[in-house]
Amino acid sequence: MVLKNAHILIIDDDPDVLTAVRLLLKTEAAEVVTEKNPENIRTLLLKQPFDIILLDMNFNSSINTGNEGLFWLKKIREFGSEAAVIMITAYGDIDLAVRSLKEGAADFVVKPWHNEKLVFTIKDALKKNEFGKTASGDPGLRDSNIGSDLIGESELMQDIFYKIEKIAPTDANILILGENGVGKDLIAKAIHQKSLRAEKLFIKVDVGALTESLFESELFGHKKGAFTDAREDRMGRFEAANDGTLFLDEIGNISLHQQAKLLSVLQNRQITRLGTNQQIPIDIRLVCATNLPLTELANENRFRKDLIYRINTVEIMVPPLRKRTEDIVPLAKHFARIYANKYMKVSNDFDSKAMEKLKLYHYPGNVRELQYTIERAVIMSEGDMLHAADLIFSPIESFKEVPAETQDLKLSTIEKNTILRVIEKHNGNVSKAAKELGLTRTALYRRLSKYDI
Q1: By mean pLDDT, which of 51-55, 127-131, 245-249 is the weakest?
Q2: CATH 3.40.50.150 fits 3-139, yes or no
Q3: Whether the predicted pLDDT of 47 surpasses 80
């Protein structure tokens, strides 16, 4: 189901929230109904079915336990509603929101939210709910799909689909390799969807973006008072993903210190929240991804080999789009349908010259670049046909590259000499050198390895 055909019910005792969400969604959905009193849920559900229900977790400001939301979530199911329920929660109630997912909620949003994020969450919940109904009605259908957004007709992608079918039902740790934009996160989701943990949570963490100070708190949780801003007990991502799948994206960008912490948890299968000594057992399916090649991960100055062996029971190499040109047209048509629907345009097709232009381009930004190119084309197009002139590839990716020999002479030599001078200046102190160069320690180690310094 698409959002424009959806009937949405919003239940929150804050009139400002009801007004804001109604104004946001009234042009996006077929119908938006708002309600302040959860006691009226049953009456509303008897009048008509809803596709999405946005449900606040707290209806009494003097209590604020979130149990009201969990109570009404159960009641909605008891009333026979098949709507996808999205919980509305404050930042401090995230643990309860995670619990709501385990008890049948489709997703949750944290107040205050970005409007784009809320709309995306609703669309995703609609898609998952429709997929779940179809799969339950036809047991064979789910087996014929590898993830709802994963598309590929090339032999390379068919090989990946076959590998997913074989490894997903196991609990083997998976390492997904590939350039930025190839769809590593979609592979991870597909593995979860085809696994025995499909009904449990899929938790994604961009570990490469976590600072040293946040790494342990985000992954393992903390106790109130463990550090300055720890105002309450908080569950980490490992604990939240218990019985489900944990996807660690950009694993190649974490420091050696962070790698040691991660290795310890994976070996012992238990975490300890910051500020406590209590060990909590965890049962997760681990999927990791990186844009670094295995050869670079094998460099022990960059990555611990024992951690590589731990996370790499099975590896999946996702090829760049330029190596699977058979997938370009199916992907382009897929994105054209999505964005025609999103922007309420007529269904677009490609003329012959547009098709030729799509096939001849080399896509340095991979599938993500193709996706944004098609979105831009659909927005700017007139009529029901996309022409070659509508396809404008990103100048960020399309700039003319310096010939390799010249680049080596002019850039690599200068960079190497600069690094040598700065490291000598700081008597070999990598941290100080990295700071002066404007690099992270990880990035500097990568260059040290590159230039064999």
Answers
A1: 127-131
A2: no
A3: yes
Given a contact cutoff of 8 angstroms between Cβ atoms, the answer to whether 220 and 236 are in contact is yes
CB 87 within 8 A of CB 65: no
Helix-strand-coil split of the chain, %, nearest 5: 50, 15, 35
**DSSP per residue, 181-236:** TS-HHHHHHHHHHTSTTTTS-EEEEEGGG--HHHHHHHHHEE-TTSSTT--S-EE-
| Residue 79 and residue 45 in contact, taking contact as beta carbons nearer than 8 Å | yes
> What residues contact 104, with CB distance under 8 A and at least 6 apart?
73, 74, 77, 85
How far is the C-alpha of 123 from the C-alpha of 51, rounded, in Å? 11
Taking 60 as the threshold, does the pLDDT of residue 186 lie above it? yes
Distance, CA of 415 to chain centre: 34
155-317 matches 3-139 in CATH topology: yes
- Domain 323-396, CATH: 1.10.8.60
Which residue, chain included where needed, has tokens 């989701």?
189
Return left, alpha or beta for 32; rule: phi > 0 is left, psi -120 to 50 is alpha, else beta: beta
**For strand 31-35 and strand 202-206, is the pairing parallel, antiparallel, or unpaired?**
unpaired
How far apart are the C-alpha atoms of 435 and 453, rounded to whole Å? 18
What Rg value do the Cα atoms of the chain yield, rounded? 25
What would the pLDDT profile of 258-299 be if each residue is shown by its tens digit? 999 999 999 999 999 988 889 999 999 999 999 998 788 888
How are beta strands 221-222 and 202-206 bridged, if at all?
Answer: unpaired
The CATH code for residues 155-317 is: 3.40.50.300
Residue-level pLDDT at 402? 43
Most confident of the ranges 39-53, 140-154, 209-223: 39-53
Select 404-450's CATH number: 1.25.40, 1.10.10, 1.10.3470, 1.10.150: 1.10.10
Instruction: Give the Cβ contact number of residue 322 at 10 Å.
Output: 13
DSSP-derived secondary structure for 74-122: HHHHHTT--PEEEEEEEGGGHHHHHHHHHTT--EEEEES--HHHHHHHH
Structure tokens at 129: 């709910």
Q: pLDDT digits over 405-435, tens only? A: 444 445 677 777 788 888 877 777 888 888 8
Q: Indicate the residue type of 429.
A: N
Top-confidence residue, 57 or 450: 57
* Amino acid letter, 186: L
Rounded distance between C-alpha atoms, residue 227 and residue 238, angstroms: 20
Domain spans in the chain, listed from the N-terminal domain onward: 3-139, 155-317, 323-396, 404-450
